[in-house]
Amino acid sequence: DLLDPIMEEMKSGLSNLGAALEDIRRKLTSLEEKTNSIEGRIGEAEDKLYHIENTSAQIETELSNLKSECDDLENRACRSNLRVMGILEGTDFRLIEKFLPAILGEDTFPDKMEIQRAHQALCARPKEGERPQSFIIKLLRFRGKERAMRRARELGQLTWNNSKIYLFPDISVELLATRKCFNQAKQTCHERKVNFALQYPAEL
Q1: Using CA atoms, how far apart are residues 159 and 163, in angstroms rounded to an integer?
Q2: Which of 134, 99, 138, 131 shows the shortest CA–CA distance to 120?
Q3: E strand or H helix at 84, and its extent?
Q4: Nearest to 117 by CA among 133, 99, 93
Q5: pLDDT tens readout for residues 1-37
Q6: By three-state DSSP, how is residue 185 classified?
Q7: Domain 79-170 annotated CATH 3.40.50.2300
Q8: What does the DSSP 8-state code read for residue 157?
Q9: Which InterPro entries would you find in this protein's record (predicted)?
Q10: Residues 66, 71, 72, 76: is their CA dihedral positive or negative?
Q11: Which of 13, 39, 69, 134 has its CA 20 to 30 A from that of 167?
């Protein structure tokens, strides 16, 4: 019976080892459950993120469309407007009605030229020596604006009260940036004496 103590010690060791293994098994099971739970949450988070990304892309598309529509509405609302550069600060607004016929000629407007309103562009008042603010003149009829622009191109340099005057269509910043993309093509047309026009609304 010399082996009895050894056997008892081995049994005790095996029992302790079994308990340790059972504890490890329980911990592994718990870890597996937690891992599965984490994987499930990650999957849910990925699904939500995918949904958010799709929603964000849709919102960006809708926002871009809304901006385009707003820009289109702005330009349509301003299609009868003239932007006039060069009018000196302090000019009496009451002179504006006489301004266009004076620099373009009375025959430019066979019918009576009707102005809905005129105002200076919304920007900071220029300092002394800086370029004066532009004037916005809204004509009652689009054809009046077209006649004014056509006549201005025919006459070339315009002057009024010893100041150089420039007439431009009143268009949005976005449309102006788009039109600048055609500067090279416009220059080529000028060099080859090809008549052209960038009209609005049109697909650019």
Answers
A1: 5
A2: 134
A3: strand 81-85
A4: 93
A5: 566 676 677 777 777 777 888 888 889 988 988 998 9
A6: helix
A7: no
A8: S
A9: Transposase_22 (IPR004244)
A10: positive
A11: 69
